[in-house]
Amino acid sequence: MKVSQKIYKAPKKISFNNQNKKKLIGTMGLLLVLVMAASLCIGAYFIDPREVFQILRHKLWGVPVPNGMAGTIVWDIRLTRILLAVTVGAALASSGAVYQGIFRNPLIEPYILGVSSGAAFGAALAILFEFPYSLQLLAFFFGMLAVTATYSVARMNGETPLVTLILSGVIISSLFSAMVSIFQYIGTEEQLRRLVFWLMGGLYQATWSDIKTILPVVAVGVLLLWMNAWKLNVLSLGETEAKTLGIHTERTKAVLMVTATAITAISVSLTGIIGWVGLMLPHAARLIVGPDHRFLIPLAAIMGSIFLVVCDTLARTISTGEVPIGIITAILGAPYLLFLLRRRSNYMGG
């Protein structure tokens, strides 16, 4: 009697050479433009693509346009949200790719060192006590402060062990989360509603002033991360190997983490906490182009932008009211993580 046994095979990886990887990144960039164009038309009030084109011509080159209301919707509401989604998606996804490379763990996300908990504490301060500073400024400051505290706690004898850094991030995050919970307990109903809605994340308050603030910062930050991609490739081999090859590991980790944290903090300060982007998209990009961060970082940034534009479009169209975008990203992200876990389980033999 023969006993049949199911044999699990390793999943086949998509293989691209460097030239094809460049073409793929260009194709994804074109897809991003198409998604942005479609998002300008889609909403509770559908606008014909030809009318959208006329509105853009009017705003950019002064060509007359007949419908003033449609112009306001396209230029002042939808376009600002789309540009903010593109910028924040690129920031979170590229930061996630860098953190996953540094920690050599595909399940690491940009919030691992406490930036989201610190930003939430800053937002809670601004909402409950009405400080003379803006909510965005306090959220950014305390987000950076939380990561600085994490790094300071983890640093020992001139070095920062990765495991200790993660544990320090958990401790600092728990501390700030506890303080946010206290604020939720003592706040009024109106304050609690504002805070909870901010914690869920959203692009509904996007303005051209926000775009002018965040776009250059994120652009410079992502460019700096990409310029250090080759060092990150070496660092991903292990700190011992990186030191052998002449890389100053502590300085390289500090530059990469400060840059990734800064663009993450400014993103969170403007949009609230948006989960899964920095975890899911870098992992998906790594499955496509492999661990070479010269291609991984730009592809993850573009995929993060596409994903967040799609999620924001869903958030403002699937209901008569505004659905927090954090809910949409969680609904789409959780099944993806389950798929990855199931896939890895099959690969390991069930």
Automatic annotation (TrEMBL):
Pfam families: FecCD (PF01032). The chain crosses the membrane at residues 24-47, 79-99, 111-129, 135-153, 165-186, 206-226, 254-281, 293-311, 323-341. Keywords: Cell membrane, Membrane, Transmembrane, Transmembrane helix, Transport. The keyword Magnesium does not apply. InterPro entries: ABC_BtuC-like, ABC_transptr_permease_BtuC. It is a multi-pass membrane protein. It is found in: Cell membrane. The keyword Membrane applies. Belongs to the binding-protein-dependent transport system permease family. FecCD subfamily. This is Iron chelate uptake ABC transporter family permease subunit. It comes from Anoxynatronum sibiricum.
